[in-house]
């Protein structure tokens, strides 16, 4: 193996200082140990970017593996003479297991493969959820894919105008609030729609995210075109003895989340009752009362008193749609489309909704138009009708204030075909 | 195409569950944060599991992952998980192992002195910064990601390792306004922005760009088709009406012949007040309060200073459970600017489409230092 060339990187050196884990130190240690020129060339190019305050990656790059239309992000340096080991530096997205539990036997195999076939650098994880293998050359893409599928039993994630890799919160694996089986649903949707994930057939990207409760720990409402958020329709379960233990100071509010500062003695009136957004709670000094009919299930009281309050047991999910980042028409959060749906395998009712939405968007969506933008363009009411769902007040925050209402001809008595002569018989000009 | 395996999807999640997780799946009863970075979950079966959460730089080598494996093998029967904010969580079932695990994690440092696995990120503190590729891998960034995140987290490590804030504070970074990740819905967000219109490479554009896509990529309709003559040959290209361009860079995403990056022009904008959870108030978008801070590699001192200033002003004034956005809305944004000592700028006033909804159509405001009283 030829000698490793290190670049002069004084600004990278600065990023070794300070207490938070230094990616520079990690990359440099790795590069030295494994004699990886790519590590030093990456730090060298990053140093140059720090000097110029501009990126040194060329625009775009279309690479991949046979049979798939996505999963690999091609990238080429614009300083190939200076940093030849990263002249091509493609990223491979690997579909993570739902909620990102691993066993080291699998991780070690992945590391060995990546040492051998790539830069040794990764992101754990990409924002959508994938394991990111950061940096390899085009010739290694097929061998990486072969090793992933044959030896590691792993597949690529999504990129491009397709279904991206679904992700979920930790769910029932380790949370007492999860109203749905987030991992099972995430896995089922990922497997059901493998074709849509690997072979781009959509107007633009489409993301699923699944959270077990309205705390939304996977940020589904902000980061998925199709957001599935667990909820319940019966009463919050109350353990009155535990409520008293909070009031008496034996239990720490919010499970101790504020323990680093003296906020005074727990005050159930101030910290729970008065902060309830619907004002549907009442503490009589002995018992906690919740008017569940008025509760909007925001999770606050449950978050504050996890030993005393739990979500109901008649559970399902709310489906919201249309979240996206600003480009093109402005950022959107997902909006309520199905207030409540029960979710049990094989999730047929849910899949029918998904497929109706896709059918409409694939037909009507413009090039690079996210679902949320299509919903804006055709109007929420039209969208809901087209995907065969029912209009309900839960879909809106408030009724429209302008009177610019569309009626269909068949909704109006007598229709729209009128005769001016007939009108003039009643109203001479 | 021989021997090709496709469409197998991810590994089945449950094979990676630690035994205590598998056994108590769906049976968890409650949890407790016993100290910063350490959670205890209790099951209806009586089982308990302790979770130690540690910060990571997200960008990591296989050796770093191997070190995680070594720790997981030693204390956790080889099981480990990552969170939705790129922290790592180790699971143990007894206090003795918990103590040993914590000691071990605290002892591991890089040669430069940084901790490899700082314990924290729970409760009402600052947890890991969700961030993007920056100059490490992307072609459209206006700022770096990993470097700024390191600089900000070095400065805020005490808040990562403690729970002293009114509520959890989510910081996110995106290196351009594609906003990959969570910038549009975070308590404090660091966003890369440009301030110069794109360059136009007339001699190359028609060969590398689909002009209709370029025209359609502009949110303000600033791009028009054009024809130019170069060396006696007519070439199709585009023109940007500069007064209508707000430098989003989306045309460059579509067209490699319209580069926009500029060392002097580019920099950081700060947004605040977003949230995702439904707790008490509805999810909120973050709002732009500082329109521009120059790029200052390698340590971005001004950005770091403003993030701390906003965080500490919030910590001082907000009520228990109140997120940054809830606090700012309660006291009024005029008071937010005054308390944080952020100069108010015309740039923070919306002028895109539904901007009217963000104007003050009431008499309800506080007098602050911004108003000239003569």
TrEMBL record, chain A:
Domain 4Fe-4S ferredoxin-type: 286-314
SUPFAM superfamilies linked: 4Fe-4S ferredoxins, Nitrite and sulphite reductase 4Fe-4S domain-like, Nitrite/Sulfite reductase N-terminal domain-like
Domain of life of the organism encoding this protein: Bacteria
Keywords: 4Fe-4S, Iron, Iron-sulfur, Metal-binding
InterPro entries hit by this protein: 4Fe4S_Fe-S-bd, DsrA, Nit/Sulf_reduc_fer-like_dom_sf, NO2/SO3_Rdtase_4Fe4S_dom, NO2/SO3_Rdtase_4Fe4S_prot, NO2/SO3_Rdtase_4Fe4S_sf
GO molecular function: 4 iron, 4 sulfur cluster binding; dissimilatory sulfite reductase (NADH) activity; heme binding; metal ion binding; sulfite reductase (ferredoxin) activity; sulfite reductase activity
An example Gene Ontology CC term for this record: sulfite reductase complex (NADPH)
UniProt keyword Transmembrane present: no
Single Gene Ontology BP annotation: sulfate assimilation
Protein name listed in UniProt: Sulfite reductase, dissimilatory-type subunit alpha
Protein's organism: Thermodesulfatator autotrophicus
Automatic annotation (TrEMBL), chain B:
4Fe-4S ferredoxin-type domain segment(s): 236-265
Record-linked InterPro entries: 4Fe4S_Fe-S-bd, 4Fe4S_Fe_S_CS, DsrB, NiRdtase/SiRdtase_haem-b_fer, Nit/Sulf_reduc_fer-like_dom_sf, NO2/SO3_Rdtase_4Fe4S_dom, NO2/SO3_Rdtase_4Fe4S_prot, NO2/SO3_Rdtase_4Fe4S_sf
Gene3D superfamilies, sorted: 3.30.70.20, 3.30.70.3340, Sulfite Reductase Hemoprotein, domain 1 (3.30.413.10)
Gene Ontology cellular component annotations, sorted alphabetically: sulfite reductase complex (NADPH)
Superkingdom, taxonomy of origin: Bacteria
Keywords: 4Fe-4S, Iron, Iron-sulfur, Metal-binding, Oxidoreductase
One GO MF term: sulfite reductase (ferredoxin) activity
GO BP: sulfate assimilation
Cofactor names: siroheme; [4Fe-4S] cluster
PROSITE patterns found in the cross-reference section: 4FE4S_FER_1, 4FE4S_FER_2
NCBIfam families assigned to the protein according to its UniProt record, in alphabetical order: dsrB
PANTHER family from the UniProt entry: SULFITE REDUCTASE [NADPH] SUBUNIT BETA, SULFITE REDUCTASE [NADPH] SUBUNIT BETA-RELATED
Protein name from the UniProt record: Sulfite reductase
Species of origin: Thermodesulfatator autotrophicus
